[in-house]
């Protein structure tokens, strides 16, 4: 029987429980399939701090080398460090991580040369099919000349590349608390921030894929509590929180209050537009705040609205030549970073903006955070399509209300909007609502939730 990889090969990556759903043997087949599908004669491979990561990434490398590809292993790295290596070396890459998932999970994020994403429609489905075939028929015929496996350290190059994209030379001294969540931020932050006028207070920098302190998912407010308390206790200027593979960064102001990723998107968009002569395209997904397109237009840019998901953002970045893109989930994409996402570069922009003026972060971001938002609210729903249809029926034909179905259902009026999207992997509907004031937002939020949960 061929292995069924449908449970672990997702829309954009591989992810599952080790060894229950996949193991090193599976990983070696995926490495061989990756080389066959991409046609690569050389690849780069990196991994996070999870206990299973070195073994899985090593097996993938051996599978790739058996088919003749030379493999450069960069060892411990963040996901955006792997993207840097793919871009700088001009090689397809594979990053072993399950991001913020619990310790028993692991996964692979794959890209073509220049950090171009590999998803279901861009090679991932073919990689799965080949790996399944080989699991039934036996390993593929090895190349006449196997590839080599070598090691390379890319951390210094990664840090230098990021530092070259943001002018931090004139910033004032800042005290910053950084919560790495025992993830890869503990590996990258010391090198990236070295030599800057920063008093860095480290939290949970010890690499530990069992996540002994809290889940490495700053999108969940519960995982920001320690950082918020430490920022207040230290009298720090700001706090930064990274997820497990350190490709996302969340920001906390001097009061310990979370800064909306939409506000960070707007702030970075304004800075990137200034770097590019006050012109350029900025991508934002459809559930970022109204503030984002407003700020983009005010600074001379052109906002482009997309579906949620990194594959859509990266595709639109490439198609439109956009200089920057941001999502509500704190993924930030840069043209100067091969259109890939890097929370670390967004963090450097925040540090540069804050350090370039005298006021506190809360005042700086106030002009980028103009509306009342609900945040994302998940509801377990048995019939996603039926609930979406009911919401559509409830609002269709209302005066001053427009509907669009770019991604789920977005309902908009002059003073408010909300979006309801089905999860691709769980029986959930996700609600995001925003209005010009809190009272209106709460009214619209509760009205939408009553329809979702009916």
TrEMBL record:
InterPro entries: A-D-PHexomutase_a/b/a-I, A-D-PHexomutase_a/b/a-I/II/III, A-D-PHexomutase_a/b/a-II, A-D-PHexomutase_a/b/a-III, A-D-PHexomutase_C, A-D-PHexomutase_C_sf, Alpha-D-phosphohexomutase_SF. Coiled coil: none annotated. Keywords: Isomerase, Magnesium, Metal-binding, Phosphoprotein. Residues 376-448 form the Alpha-D-phosphohexomutase C-terminal domain. SUPFAM superfamilies: Phosphoglucomutase, C-terminal domain, Phosphoglucomutase, first 3 domains. Residues 8-133, 157-256, 266-371 form the Alpha-D-phosphohexomutase alpha/beta/alpha domain. It comes from the Bacteria. The keyword Repeat does not apply. It holds the Pfam family PGM_PMM_IV. The keyword Manganese does not apply. GO terms for molecular function: intramolecular phosphotransferase activity; metal ion binding. Its cofactor is Mg(2+). GO terms for biological process: carbohydrate metabolic process. Belongs to the phosphohexose mutase family. This is Phosphomannomutase/phosphoglucomutase.
């Amino acid at each position: 029987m061929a292995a069924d990889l449908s449970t672990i090969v997702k829309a954009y990556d591989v992810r599952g429980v080790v060894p229950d759903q996949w193991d090193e043997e599976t990983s070696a087949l995926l490495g061989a399939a990756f080389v066959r599908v991409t046609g690569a004669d050389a690849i780069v491979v990196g991994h996070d701090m999870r206990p299973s990561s070195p073994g899985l990434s090593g097996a993938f490398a051996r599978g790739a080398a058996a088919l003749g590809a030379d493999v450069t292993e960069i060892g411990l790295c963040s996901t955006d460090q792997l993207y840097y290596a793919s871009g700088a070396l001009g090689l397809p890459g594979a990053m072993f991580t399950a991001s913020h998932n619990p310790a028993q999970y692991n996964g692979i994020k794959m890209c073509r040369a220049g950090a171009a994403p590999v998803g279901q429609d861009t090679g991932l489905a073919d990689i799965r099919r080949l790996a399944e075939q080989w699991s039934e028929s036996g390993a593929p015929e090895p190349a006449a000349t196997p590839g080599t496996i070598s090691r390379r350290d890319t951390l210094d190059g990664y840090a230098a590349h990021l530092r070259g994209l943001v002018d931090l030379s004139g910033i004032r001294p800042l005290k910053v608390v950084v919560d790495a969540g025992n993830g890869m931020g503990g590996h990258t932050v010391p090198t990236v921030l070295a030599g800057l006028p920063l008093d860095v207070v480290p939290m949970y920098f010890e690499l530990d894929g069992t996540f002994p302190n809290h889940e490495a998912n700053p999108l969940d407010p519960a995982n920001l509590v320690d950082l918020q308390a430490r920022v207040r206790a230290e009298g720090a200027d700001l706090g930064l929180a990274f997820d497990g593979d350190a490709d996302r960064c969340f920001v906390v102001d001097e009061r310990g209050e979370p800064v909306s990723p939409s506000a960070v998107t707007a702030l970075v968009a304004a800075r990137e537009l200034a770097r590019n002569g006050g012109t350029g395209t900025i991508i934002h997904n459809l559930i970022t705040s109204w503030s984002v397109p407003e700020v983009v237009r005010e600074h001379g840019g052109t906002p482009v609205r997309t579906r949620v998901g990194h594959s859509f953002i990266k595709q639109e970045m490439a198609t439109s030549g956009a200089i920057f893109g941001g999502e509500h989930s704190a993924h930030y994409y840069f043209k100067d970073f091969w259109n890939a996402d890097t929370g670390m570069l967004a963090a450097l922009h925040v540090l540069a903006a804050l350090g370039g003026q005298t006021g506190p972060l809360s005042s700086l971001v106030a002009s980028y955070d103009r509306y009342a938002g609900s945040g994302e609210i998940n509801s377990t729903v048995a019939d996603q399509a039926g609930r979406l249809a009911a919401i559509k029926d409830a609002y269709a034909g209302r005066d001053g209300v427009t509907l669009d179905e770019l991604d789920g259902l977005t309902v908009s009026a002059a003073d408010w909007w909300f979006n309801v999207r089905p999860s691709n992997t769980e029986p959930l509907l996700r609600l995001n609502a925003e209005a010009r004031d809190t009272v209106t937002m709460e009214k619209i939020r509760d009205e939408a939730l009553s329809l979702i949960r009916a």
